[in-house]
Structure formats: structure tokens, C-alpha cells
Design goal:
alpha/beta; eleven-stranded mixed sheet; 23 strands; 13 helices; single chain; about 450 residues
Length: about 450
């Protein structure tokens, strides 16, 4: 069971292990023979590591769940972070991402980190979101929305937001003033945020237009460059120095900054990719030694297995020819699901869970399928792992990213919504299922991931 260490949730659970076969009952509920598998315990474990690395042990933990929680499924992941107390707030990149969480019944404080336009402010107010602003026009836009509410005695109903409560808990959404914003300062990223000299003007605008300002933030551009990162911290500190005693909160630290011990003494932390067990910057061995656990794998069972005779051609373009009699399996997982076309024609392999054998992907990757060479005929509903939840140099998210010359973020967020997602906890129990192309979530109660729900 999880235990509290100070005011932080700790976990001592082992990594999730699925049995090599999966029940037909569970497959029917998942709805597809190939699915994303998410280890919820790993998410909590990784947040604990990140929080413990911070100089400020009481920093507010803002879990970044943009990009569909980096491919893991934003709603189930956000729910779990908040239900377990592992996160204090949530953050996304766009207003629509935040509204998606609201419509799923998530009443946490949600920050929208992307540039927000004045015409988007009405939805931010209606859904009680905290937008990130960088211009006076955006402040005026939210002021107009608030003025409409004041002058018309308009009420924000429960469909659009979560109405004010009586408990003054700074981590509760109902304690945040309607229309609250954070201002972002560009300290060197040159992407989002106001210029440093514009900050005083924006703070005055908040006062003049009666817009609640809670915090000021910035973003590191390259935490692997300690000199430039320190220059960003120095610029930010110069900007906020006149306002340190005005009740505002300040934050800069994303995953890379936390791992490099940059700005972790501030009020908030905003971990993203490292929550999911991915290393954004530091030495790979050092990251593993810290104990981070990748939280996502892709698993599946073949939809068809054939014994092909020597000379048989496989896949588009007939790029593979069997040089002997071979067992070949088809898995319904292709580049429309987020698998890279470059990984076909013998350039990758999957793992047979029963034996740990490596099974080569042969022929071209199709839009909807891959073909895999097997050592023998598999058992019915036998599981294979297409992407492994580890740091394997070939089969993990990290290994695939390195082989393709990209970053883990891109491998994860490519995983399509047409893939259902199975969520596990307590070292293998089924927590829930997110159905493909749907906001439908099936809450489960299983003894193990290959068991029958009851």
C-alpha cells in the first residue's frame, strides 16, 4: 500500500508484470488485440522521485498531462494523479485539452501553459482554468469576461465549471478566484512569454482591470547548458525581485530542471516527460540509478498466424521472402497507430512474453498491421510486447527514439486514439480501460491483468 512520507505519497510497489496469456473476457473489454498498457504505479513512483529531488520539499506539484498525457491517456492519468494525492494541480498546453478534462469530471486546478488569445478567455473563465498570459490584450480579454459576469449577475453553472465552495484550500479549484491568471516571462526560450521589461506593465494591468494574478513563471530552453540556464534564472530573479513580498508564486522547473537541480527552490514544479519514466537530459545511467520507471508499453496478440512455405513473399512490395518454412504472425498495429514505418523490414523485433524470445518484424510496416516471424505456433491469446516498458536499446520508447534520431516525446505522443489503453496498478491488477476513439472508461476489479473482471 502507498504510504505518506512527510506530505508526499510514497510507493514501494514492484513494476507491473502481466502473465504471458490474456483472457478472452479481458480482451473483449479492451476491444482490440493490440493495446497500450499503462503502469499507474510507475507514474506515482516517478513523481515521488522528482519531488524528493527538489530543494523545496513543499513545492506544489503540477503534473503536466498535455499531449494526451504524453500518449498515456490524459483523463485516466489525471484522475489517478489527483485521486492518489501524488499531484496538487494539472497542466496542459491548450484550452481544449483542459476542457476535455473538465468534461470528464476532473475538478482539479488546471493550468493552460500555451499562449492564450483574448478570444479564448471566455472559455477559460467558464471552465475555471488558469491561463498563461503574456500580453495586456489577454488581460483585457479576461477582464471583459469577468465584467460580464459582475454586471449581469451571471452564474457559472456546474456544466461549465466547478462552483465556489467554502473551504479555503489553496490546492482546491473552488478556492481559486474566477479569472485567475499566471504571467509568463521569456527569459531566453524566445517562444512564449512577455519580454522581461514588460512584466511591470502587465502586473499593473492586472490591478487596473481587476484580474486576479496568482503567479509568474518562465521556461528553460536548454537545461543541459548550465551557463545559459543560470542566466535564465538570473533574469527571472531580477524580474520578480520587486514582487517577492506581494503574495505571488513563482516557478520555472520542468523535468530537465528538476533533474539538474535548477530552480527547484521555487514555489511550484512542473514535471512532464519524466513523470512517464523518460529521461529528457541527464546521463542515461544516472537517470536509471535514480530509479525512474517507464510507465508505458504496447502489447498484443496475433490476429492470424500462418505457416508459410519457403519462397513465400510477405507484405507490400514483396520485400521479404521466406528462405524456409516459417511461422508468420499478423498483429493489427501499423503506422496509423503510431508505429514507425522505418521499423519494418527486419529493423525491429518484438518480445514473446512467454519465453522472452525476440521475434523479428519482417516485410514493410503497413498502415494497419505488422508481420512478425515467430519461432513456432503460439498459444491462443498469447501476449507479445511490441514496445517494452524499460530502457532496452531496441524495443523501449527510449531505444526506438534513439534509433530513429528523435526524442521519446515524439514516440509516445504518436500512439493513436484508436489504440485502447489498459491501466494497471498494485503490481498487475487491472484498474481501468480507456476504449478506443472514446471518452468511455471501464472501471475494473481484477485480481490480475489476465484475469476475468468481477
Amino acid at each position: 500500500m502507498p504510504m505518506l512520507h512527510g506530505n508526499r505519497l510514497m510507493t514501494q510497489k514492484l513494476p507491473v508484470v502481466m502473465e504471458p496469456r490474456i483472457s478472452v473476457d479481458l480482451l473483449q473489454k479492451i476491444g482490440r488485440p493490440v493495446f497500450v498498457c499503462v503502469d499507474l504505479d510507475a507514474l506515482i513512483h516517478n513523481m515521488t522521485i522528482l519531488a524528493d529531488l527538489c530543494a523545496n520539499k513543499d513545492a506544489v506539484r503540477v503534473a503536466v498531462v498535455k499531449g494526451n498525457a504524453y500518449g498515456h491517456g490524459a483523463v485516466p492519468v489525471a484522475r489517478h494523479f489527483m485521486a492518489t494525492g501524488a499531484a496538487d494541480r494539472l497542466a496542459v498546453a491548450t484550452v481544449d485539452e483542459a476542457i476535455h478534462l473538465r468534461r470528464a469530471g476532473i475538478d482539479a486546478i488546471i493550468h493552460v501553459l500555451g499562449n492564450i488569445q483574448p478570444w479564448e478567455m471566455q472559455r477559460c473563465v467558464s471552465y475555471r482554468l488558469i491561463p498563461t498570459v503574456a500580453s495586456e490584450q489577454s488581460i483585457i480579454g479576461i477582464s471583459k469576461c469577468l465584467e460580464k459576469i459582475r454586471t449581469s449577475d451571471q452564474k457559472i453553472d456546474d456544466y461549465h465549471c466547478f462552483a465556489n465552495g467554502v473551504n479555503a484550500d489553496p490546492l482546491r479549484n473552488d478556492s481559486i478566484a474566477l479569472g485567475t491568471i499566471h504571467i509568463k516571462v521569456d527569459t531566453g526560450m524566445s517562444r512564449n512569454g512577455c519580454q522581461p521589461h514588460e512584466l511591470p506593465q502587465l502586473i499593473e494591468a492586472c490591478k487596473s482591470y481587476h484580474v486576479p494574478l496568482e503567479g509568474i513563471l518562465s521556461m528553460f530552453s536548454n537545461t543541459e547548458d548550465p551557463v545559459f540556464s543560470q542566466s535564465q534564472i538570473d533574469t527571472f530573479n531580477q524580474c520578480i525581485e520587486p514582487y517577492r513580498n506581494d503574495g505571488y508564486v513563482f516557478h520555472m522547473a520542468n523535468s530537465g530542471a528538476i533533474l539538474d537541480n535548477l530552480a527547484t527552490d521555487m514555489d511550484f514544479i512542473r514535471p512532464g516527460i519524466s513523470l512517464y519514466g523518460m529521461n529528457p537530459c541527464i546521463d542515461a545511467d544516472a537517470f536509471i540509478r535514480l530509479g525512474f520507471r517507464p510507465s508505458l508499453s504496447v502489447k498484443g496478440t496475433p490476429t492470424l498466424v500462418k505457416k508459410l512455405c519457403a519462397g513465400s513473399k510477405v507484405g507490400y512490395g514483396c520485400t521479404y521472402t521466406c528462405d524456409k518454412d516459417e511461422w508468420v504472425a499478423t498483429f493489427p498495429f501499423g503506422y496509423a497507430d503510431g508505429f514507425w514505418r522505418e521499423l519494418g523490414e527486419g529493423k525491429s523485433f518484438i518480445i514473446r512474453d512467454k519465453t522472452g524470445e525476440k521475434c523479428t518484424v519482417i516485410g514493410r510496416i503497413s498502415m494497419d498491421a505488422i508481420t512478425v516471424q515467430l519461432p513456432c505456433q503460439p498459444e491462443e491469446n498469447e501476449l507479445f510486447t511490441i514496445i517494452t516498458a524499460d530502457f532496452n536499446p531496441r524495443t523501449s520508447v527510449t531505444g526506438i527514439a534513439k534509433g530513429l534520431g528523435t526524442i521519446e516525446h515524439e514516440v509516445l505522443i504518436r500512439l493513436s486514439d484508436r489504440l485502447p489503453r489498459l491501466y494497471l496498478y498494485n503490481s498487475g491488477k487491472v484498474h481501468s480501460i480507456q476504449c478506443a476513439f472514446s471518452n468511455m472508461y471501464i472501471e475494473m476489479d481484477c485480481d490480475s491483468a489476465n484475469g476475468v473482471a468481477h
